[in-house]
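Box 3.1 — From sequence to structure: DMT family transporter
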Amino acid sequence: MDKATGGWISGFIGVLIFSGSLPATRMAVLQFDPIFLTVARATIAGMLALALLLLMKQKRPSGRDLAALAVVAGGVVLGFPLLTALALQHVTSAHSIVFIGLLPLATAIFGVLRGGERPRPAFWIFSGLGSAAVAGFALSQGLTASPAGDLLMLAAVLVCGLGYAEGARLSRTLGGWQVISWALVLSLPVMLVVALYCRPPSFDGIAAPAWLGLGYVSLFSMLIGFVFWYRGLALGGIAAVGQLQLLQPIFGLALAAWLLGEPVSWTMLVVTLAVIACVAGARRFAR
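Predicted structure (token representation):
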């Protein structure tokens, strides 16, 4: 298996794992405060990451890597989880999942700015068409469902794209699982303090689905998914493998309908199919 193929396989596994993130967050945020949910998931994942780093006897990152790790932590440990949790108080996970179709374009742009990649012009056409389909969906809703929810999702996509690109760049030297682990550990002291401060007065009455949602986003969305994702981006290219995120909406929509019983409109399906159709063309011209 060549390096590019290995990168696409790893990236695809990461996308499958991430597809459950928004439905799981929706399950959890119905009973947990968004800020507590954000810091709690980062605290749990950070403790697991610290144990893993100690067990594997990994050396500490160099001083020049700390700034990049801080960007990763700000984007994917704090920014995206918090912004999506806040958004999901206003919109359904099925609605928010479609905005994930903008992530490939954001990731590709930051891949150029931070990773030094140079996709061919045709790549941007296909990537732009996928993003345009997502933007068209938002406009077709008239932004009346919740302007606040949509703006929060757009902000989440931007900070996540930056965190993906920066983490992928750093993975070339540190390794994929090491990058997310050190980012989590770097965030752990602050996250732990805030989690203790923001914890609910009582956990009585918190139903099993909320606990399951918290467990999923802590273990899979915050740690395991990134092990595969950063490895995929580092091996196959940030812009190219990043297009796999166009598959995430359809997996997420299926999970939202199955787990949460949320309605999935025909417009959501059309948009999802349209952005998926763009991934083949974007992949062909990524390099």
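Summary of the box: The mean pLDDT is 86.
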